[in-house]
């Protein structure tokens, strides 16, 4: 999955924020390089997190925030009863199809952010105990929230991948580029 920031506006705030978001997506994506679906589903740490589960989670979280900002229904609805399914592949889901889904979400995110008149435009936060009542946040806030969310889980992905086979983020960047890391 590679989302290219629009080269017509290099250095603008939208482009910079989208580039940071995409860089963090790359950390999660690279952690999956060379693994089978079975390897990506393993949970080598004390938690129940797996690489495929992290992939699915960050894609769904991005899609749900994007839907909220667009003020449309999310493609995937999570409830208390099915929340656990957002951290593991179920049914016929594969790493490949979750990567394709995330690529689609990433493209929609970029298209939406590029289409809003201003990063100061707002949308309502969800009704949740951890958010203030009746609060609105900006599109800038949305991008910063997504960067934070994906970065946190990219760090988790680094730890999980290194626990699986000793590969570090540096090695995986080189692998992605077709280079060797010595």
Textual characterization of the structure:
This protein is mainly alpha-helical. The chain has one domain: dinb family like domain (Four Helix Bundle (Hemerythrin (Met), subunit A), Up-down Bundle), CATH 1.20.120. The protein is 54% helix and 3% strand. The chain contains 6 helices and 2 strands; from the N terminus they run ααααββαα. Strands 1-2 form a two-stranded antiparallel ribbon. Helix 1 packs antiparallel against helix 4, helix 1 runs parallel beside helix 5 and helix 3 packs parallel to helix 4. The longest helix has 27 residues. The two termini are 26 Å apart. The N terminus is likely disordered.
Question: What's the short version?
Answer:
The protein is mainly alpha-helical and 182 residues long. It is built from 6 helices and 2 strands. The chain has one domain (13-176): Up-down Bundle (Four Helix Bundle (Hemerythrin (Met), subunit A)), CATH 1.20.120.450.
């Amino acid at each position: 999955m590679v989302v290219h920031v629009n080269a017509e506006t290099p250095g603008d705030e939208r482009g910079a924020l989208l580039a940071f978001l995409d860089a963090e997506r790359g950390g999660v994506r690279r952690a999956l390089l060379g693994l089978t679906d079975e390897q990506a589903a393993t949970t080598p740490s004390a938690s129940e997190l797996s690489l495929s589960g992290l992939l699915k989670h960050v894609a769904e979280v991005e899609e749900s925030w994007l839907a909220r900002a667009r003020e449309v229904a999310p493609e995937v609805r999570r409830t208390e009863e099915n929340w656990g399914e957002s951290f593991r592949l179920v049914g016929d889901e594969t790493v490949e199809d979750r990567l394709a889904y995330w690529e689609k979400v990433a493209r929609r995110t970029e298209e939406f952010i590029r289409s809003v008149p201003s990063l100061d435009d707002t949308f309502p936060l969800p009704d949740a105990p951890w958010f203030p009542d009746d609060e609105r946040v900006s599109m800038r806030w949305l991008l910063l929230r997504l960067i934070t969310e994906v970065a946190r889980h990219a760090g988790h992905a680094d730890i999980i991948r290194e626990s699986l086979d000793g590969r570090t983020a540096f090695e995986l960047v080189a692998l992605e580029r077709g280079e060797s890391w010595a």
